[in-house]
Structure prediction request, 358 residues.
Amino acid sequence: MSDKIRIGITHGDPNGIGYEVILKAFADPAMFDLCTPVIYGSPKVATYHRKALDLSTNFFTINSVTEASDNRLNLVPCTAEEVKIDFGQATAEAGRAALAALERAIIDWKAGNIDVIVTAPINKHSIQSDTFRFPGHTEFIEERVGNGDKALMILMNEKLRVALVTTHLPISKVPQAITRETLMEKVKIFHLSLQRDFSISMPRIAILSLNPHAGDNGLLGSEENEVIIPTIDEALKAGIQVFGPYPADGFFGTRQYEHYDGVLAMYHDQGLAPFKALAMNDGINFTAGLPLVRTSPDHGTAFDIAGKGVADETSMRQAIYTAIDVFRHRKDWDEARQSPLPKLYQDKHEDRRPLRIE
Prediction:
C-alpha cells in the first residue's frame, strides 16, 4: 500500500451534484500528487454522470480499496442495485445508494484501509431508513465511530471557522438544549480541535449570544446571564481563551471574526447564514471531536442545478485539502505526545556526575 494519504470519497445522493464536483475536482492531475482517492459509489452511475455532463475525468473500477492505485481515480462499487438517475429528485433508491456508500467507507476506515473520509452531499429525507434515523452525516458518523466521543460541526474556509453548539435542531428546542454542561463540552472540543487539527497553540474563541443584543442585561432573555457568561468564566479558569458573548449581527457585520481563530454559534442558522454569505464557494464542513477525520463540501445536493454541468467544484476540492491537512496535523500532534521527552535530572552525589536520561 502507498504512503500517500488514502481518501475515501462517498458519492452522496446520485441525483445531486456529487459526481459532478468529484469528477471536476480530479480533472486536475496535480490532485493525485496529494492523495490516493477512492470513490465509494457505483460505476454505472458515475459513467452516466460523466456522459451526461460531458466530463473527461477517467475513473477505474476496483473490487476492494486494497486494490487502489496511485495517480488515478479509483472507484469501489457499493451497491448491486440498479439506480435510476433522475436529476434533481429525491428518491428512495438514491437514498439507499447514498447510505450504502457511506457505510462501506466507514467499514474500510475502521479496518485501516483508508485514512480520511470526504462525503458528497446527501438528501436528508431520502436517506432515512431502519439503519439511518439521523438528521444528517454528523450524527450518523458520531454514532458509528464516536465510541462515546461527541462530534462538533465546524464550517470553515481559510479565513473563518464557525462551530455550532446545536446543529439540526428545531429553533423551539434550542434554548433548552443550551446548558452550561453542553456549552462547556463544545468549548473544550473546539479548543482541542483548533490545537490538534489546525496547529493553533493558543486559540482565541469568540462566543456568540443566543438572544438579540446579548440579552440586553436580561431584558431580551436570561440565557446569557444564566448559562453563557458563567460558562465563559469557567472556561477562562480552565485556561481556554474565550471571549463574549457577542450579538451575532454586529459581530459579523463589523468583521470581528477576523480577530479570532474560531467562532462558537448557538444554533444552526445563526452560524451558517453569515458563514455561507461569506464563504459559499470555498466553505467546507468539518466534523471535529471524533477519531475519524471527515470533511464535506459546504453545500447540499443542489437539486436545482443537478445535471446542468454548472456546479462549482471548489468546495469539494477544499474539503479534500482540509482532510489531508487535518490528518497530518493530528499525526504530528499525537506523535509529539506519544513519546514525551525523558526526564532529565542531576545526580546530587559529590562526584558531580553528568546529566543522565532516566
